[in-house]
Every structure is written in structure tokens, then in C-alpha cells.
Amino acid sequence: MMTEQHVTRLLGSLSFIIIAVVLLGAEPLPQWPEYHLFADDRRILGIANMHNVLSNLGFLVVGAWGLVFMAGQAGLQTTGNLKNCYWVFFSGLILTGLGSAYFHLHPNNQTLVWDRLPMTIMFMGFFAAVIGELLGERTARVLLIPLLLAGMASVAWWAWTESMGVGDLRPYALVQFLPMLLVLLMLFLSQKPAHFTPYIAAMIMIYGLAKLCELYDHEIFTTLGWISGHALKHLFSAVASAAILMMLYRRKQEAERSDPTT
Question: How many other C-beta atoms lie within 10 A of the C-beta of residue 88?
């Protein structure tokens, strides 16, 4: 097993190479206009695109549940010096639910900014937490703020370039997909704490299923008739994020078993 320092250097070098290749070797990636043409645009009970709006409730439930957990003694005991990373993750979930609901009420590039911005907060909180779990708490504390700024800057860059008529989603794509690649590599290369890998693996697999639902939005709605792929994407993504909360509850249960005074 490689040391934390070696893994950190390897992943840092790999990240630099991937970022350089994408930003220097690939053409700018504009937002495709068809993105806003979701399969299920039904207005129900006066709510436009109701299923795509209300399916964001899952983010709100998991995020609020996570913040309640973090506010208690169990949250501090199970996350320790990584508590800020988990606070950011669960707060980002709530903001994602609100931002996505707002976007789906009026789907356009302007409202899409408020969908993507909180998603970067959620992504980077999760990424920093995994870094802390696998590479060291100090590394996570140092990187949390820069990661958050990089995530928000990627959305700001896309919105600005889009307003100039030359939209560029490359930085945002890196923010969304590069951390997942690095998390998989960290799981393979690093020593893992107890009860960590199954929950992270479950999160990644369920999130992958959510992205497939998003990709086949129209086909799923045509087949099922009552729910679209995009609404399922929201629901599966919320379930994926709940895997992190379940991991923390598992740690709480293990701590209670090992401490006869609790």
C-alpha cells in the first residue's frame, strides 16, 4: 500500500495532467440548447414541470437529516476534524434541492446557474471529506476552501462565457467528474477506515445510475409514462447522498457498542 504522501503526489500530478489536457487540448464546450427540453413538462396543480420540481425533495430531506445529525454530539464524534467538510456536503444538498427546484420551474441558462452552483458545493464538500478520510485530515482542511472556490469559479466561468456567446462547460465538467475518478483511485491506493468503502462504492454506483436516468430522460418517460428519467435522476442522486449519512450512522453504532457507558 502506498503512503499518503505518495498517493497525494500521484493524484496531484494526475489531476494537473487531466486539467491541462482538457483546458488546453479540447475545444470549448457550450451548453447545448436541447438540455432544457425535458421529457416531462406537465403542469400539475399549477406547478410547472411538477415532477422535476418536487423530485428535489429528496435532497432537502437528506441534507436536513444530515445537518441535524451533525449538530448533535454524534456528528462531532463520527467526523472529528472533518466536520466542516461534512457540514459543507449536507448544506450543499439542501442548496442543491432548492436551486434545482428553482431551475425546473423556469428552465433556462440563467436559472441553471443556481442549479449548478450549489451542486459544486455539494461535490467539493464530499470530495474534501473523502480526501480527509483517505489521505489525511490536514490535507482536507487545507484543500476545502480552494476546492469550493474552484467549483464556484467553474460555474461563474460557464455563465460568463455563455453570456459572451462562447459558452464553455469544460471547467464545470472537470469539477463534476474528475473528483469521482480521483475518489476511485484513492479507494484503490489508500488504506481505508472501517465501514467506509461499501458506502462510498454504493454512492458512486447509485450516482452512476442517476446519470444514466438523466441521459435516457425521454426514453424512460416514454416507457413508464408517469415519471421521467430526469426526475428519477434526482431521486437516485438523493439516495446516493444518503449513503454518506448511513456511513456516519454506522460509525455511531460501532462507537456505542465499543463504549459501555453510552
Answer: 21
